[in-house]
Design goal:
160 residues; mainly beta; Chitinase A, domain 3; Thrombin, subunit H; five-stranded antiparallel sheet; 8% helix
């Protein structure tokens, strides 16, 4: 069976940046199992997986516009320190959930001054070319409940 919309696929993968730094990997874990074609993957990886079958392996470099988008400087902001808990030890690299015009998003602290905290609302992988080394482990038809719920159930998936 090939990977097509609404198929359940399981992959082993390693994700690196252009410098070879490992960003994420399934090594030492169960394969990543997902319902294909419902928006659970970045568009570039989804496009590369379509039509593949169990046993297929490939490497692909995905541009930011087909992954997490380009970085946008307007998503950087200086927030008054008073917006954070007074006793919090705010440090660069910390992440917080924030509410904005587009809903909830994760912001990353990139700098701390006496009166302000510099935050970045870009996705941490925005502007980064992503390099995937992928092996398709399994492909199967989704069952009716998985299609109804929009996600995989059972091993590697969601349990109810």
């Amino acid at each position: 069976m090939q990977i097509t919309k609404n198929a359940v696929a399981s992959i082993e993968y390693e994700l690196t940046d252009d410098e070879g730094n490992v960003i994420d990997s399934s090594k030492g874990r169960e394969p990543l199992t997902f319902l294909f074609g419902v928006g659970g993957l970045i568009p570039g990886l989804e496009a590369e997986l379509e039509g593949k079958a169990a046993g297929d392996a490939f490497k692909v470099r995905i541009a930011p516009e087909d992954a997490y988008g380009e970085r946008h400087e307007e998503m950087m902001a200086d927030v008054p320190r008073s917006q954070f808990p007074a006793d919090a030890d705010i440090q660069p690299g910390m992440q917080f959930q924030a509410s904005g015009p587009q809903g909830s998003q994760v912001i990353t602290v990139v700098g701390v001054e006496a009166d302000t905290v510099r935050v970045d609302g870009n996705h941490p992988l925005a502007g980064v070319h992503l390099n995937f080394d992928v092996k398709v482990v399994d492909v199967r038809e989704a069952n009716a409940e998985e299609l109804e719920h929009g996600h995989v159930h059972g091993p590697g998936g969601h349990g109810h």
